[in-house]
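Two proteins, back to back. First:
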Amino acid sequence: MDFQLMLLTIGVSFILAVIAAPLLIPLLRRMKFGQQVREDGPKSHLKKSGTPTMGGVVIVLAFTLAFLKFSPVKNTDFYVLLVATLGFGLIGFLDDYIKIVAKRSLGLTARQKLFGQLMFSGIMSFLLIQNGHSTEIAVPGTDWAFDFGGWFYYPFIVIMMLAISNAVNFTDGLDGLLSGVSAIAFGAFAIVAMQATSLPAAVCAAAMIGAVLGFLVYNAHPAKVFMGDTGSLAIGGAIGAIAIVTKTELLFLVIGGVFVIEMLSVVIQVISFKTRGKRVFKMSPIHHHFELSGWSEWRVVITFWAVGLLLAGLGLYIYKGL
C-alpha cells in the first residue's frame, strides 16, 4: 500500500507540474521575469538572458498540493517538512522577486537571507523539541552513534539546513542539472523514509520527485524556464528536513554528494583566491569548470546525473536499514 501511495503521489505531482508550467511561462514572459546572466560566466550562457525564471513556483505548487493530499498523517514530521520546504521556498521567492521586479541584482542581502533561514530552521527545531525528537546522530555504514544532547544537536541541524540549502542553490546553474540530481536524491530518500517508517517523509520525497521531474520537462536543455532561488531553496529545505526527520543526517553527505561537491568547490575557490591569489578551478561552482574546459552543457549535466545516481546507490547500500 505504501508503494502504491508513493507512485500515486509522484504521478499526481508530476501531472500538476506539467500542466502548471506552460500556464506560468507565458505569464512570466509578459511580466518580464527574465533571467539575468552573469557577464563573467561562460559566454555560451549569454543567449539564456531573458529566459523566464521563478519557475520554482511550479515545483512548490505541485509539491504542496500533492503532499497535502496524500500525506496519511499530519504529525510533527509532516509540519517540519512543510515548514522547511515552504519556508525556504518563500525566502527564495522573495530573493527572486527583489532581483527581477525591484531590479536589485543581488536580491535579498546576505543578512536578510540568513535571518530567514535561521527563522525557519528555528521553527523546525521548536517543533522537533516539542515532540521529543531524538538527538542521537548515527554514523552511516556503522553501528556507532553519538549523542551530545540538545545543546549540540539543534545548533547542528540549523547549520545543516543552512549548508544544504546553499549547496543545492549552488547546483542550480545548468539546464536540468538540479532538477535531475534532486530527483535522484529524493528517490533515494523516499526509500530511506519508507525503511525508517516515516510516511510523511516518504510522501514528501515522492511529491518532490514528481514536481521536479514535471518541471524538468520544460527545464531540460534548452530550458524554457529556470526555477530560480524559489525552486532551489525549496528543494534544499525539503532534502534537509527529510534527512533530519528520518534520522539520517550524515547520510546526506553520500546521497547528496553532488551538492556537497558543488559547495566544496566554491569554498575551495574562495579560500584559495583569498589566501594565495590563485584559482583552483576555471570557475566555480565546479559544473562551470567543466564547461570552460570544453565540455558541452548537456555532457556536464548527464555526467553529474550519473554521479548523483552512483552516490544515491552507495547511500542506500550503506544505510543500515536496508
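And the second protein:
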Amino acid sequence: MSKSAFQLLPSFVRRERASLTATVLSPVIALATAIVLNIGLYVTMGRDPVAVMHAMLLEPFISWSSFSEVLLKMGPLLFIAQGLAIGFRAKVFNIGAEGQFILGAIFASAIPIWYPDAEGVWIWPTMLLCGAIGGALWASITAFWRARLNANEILVSLMLSLVAAQLLYYLLLGPWKDPNGFNFPQSVMFQYDAMVPTLIEGTRVNVSLIIALALSLAAWIFMQKSFMGFKLQVGGLAPRAAGYAGFSEKRAIWLSLLIGGFAAGLAGAAEVAGPIGQLQRSIATGYGYAAIIVAYLGGLHPIGIIFSSLFMAALYIGGDNAMVSADLPVAAVRVFQGSLLLAYLIAVAFVRYRLEWPHPTRRRAS
C-alpha cells in the first residue's frame, strides 16, 4: 500500500475524558454483540439458537439448585480476577493464574495427605493459608525473571502453568496417589475438618464465597484508598511520571505478581477443600484463564468484577446445561466466552479513543 493510501486511513485519538455512560454500557453492548455473533454460529451448526440461549443464559437463574452452583463457581473466579486486575491496572500481565491455582491446590492438599488423622477447626484455615502461599511462591518465579532479567511476564507465567500441570500429574500418579483409588490419578479423600464449612444448608456453597467478597472489599480499599495502590495505578497509566516521582518499577512488578499469585493460590486451596474434597487432575478447569475475561469484563474495578464473576459463573453452568439439553459442543461454549472478551475490548477501545479522519486540506497539502 502506498504512502498516500495510508494517509487516507483514519487514526485512533485518545479522548480527553471517557464518557461514564459509555463505560457502563460497554459490557452490555459487548454481551449483545457476542449473543448475535454466536446465534449465527449456532444456526450454522444446525442447533436451535433459542434453546441454546435459554439453557446458557436463563436456566442458571431459574431454580435455586442451579443458582447455588453459580455461586459455587463464582468463588474461584472472583478470587483470581481480583488478584489479576490489580496487576493488569499496573500493566503487569500475569497470564499464569492457572498454574498458581494448581500450586495453591497442591500446597493446601499437603496437610490432609500427610496428616490424614489430624483433627480440629484449624485445618481448613491453614490449608487456605498454605494454598495462598503456594500460589504466591509460584508467581514469584515470574516476578524474579521479569524484574531481574527483564523476561516477558506473559510468556514466563504462561509456560509455568504447563509446568504446574505436569507437577500435579506427577504427584497424582506417584507419591500422592490413593492406594485404594482403583488406579485413578487422585489423592485420598480429605477428612471432615479439612473441608471448608458450608455456607448455605442444602447446597455446596461454602464459606470461601464470603472470603472472596471480603477480598474484593480489600482490593477496592487497596486500589482506591492506599498510597501503594495509587503508585501501582500511576505506574500503569504513566510509567515515565511514576519513574520521575521515584516509584519503583521492580517493586510494582513483585507486588502485582505476588498479589495475583496469592489470590489464585487461595482459590485453588478453596477448591480442593470445598466442593472436591481431594486433589484430582481435573482441578485444572481453566479458572485461571476465564478469570482474565472476568477481570476485563468488570472493567478492572473490584465492584465490577463481582458482577462479571457472577455472570461468567452463570456461563459455566449454562454452558453445561447447553451441552446436555441442546447438544452444544464444549468448544462452542469457549467460543462464546472468547467472543465476549473480544467484543468488550473493542467496545472499550471506542470508549477511550475516537476515530479521526484526515482533514481534506491536509491530504491535498501532503
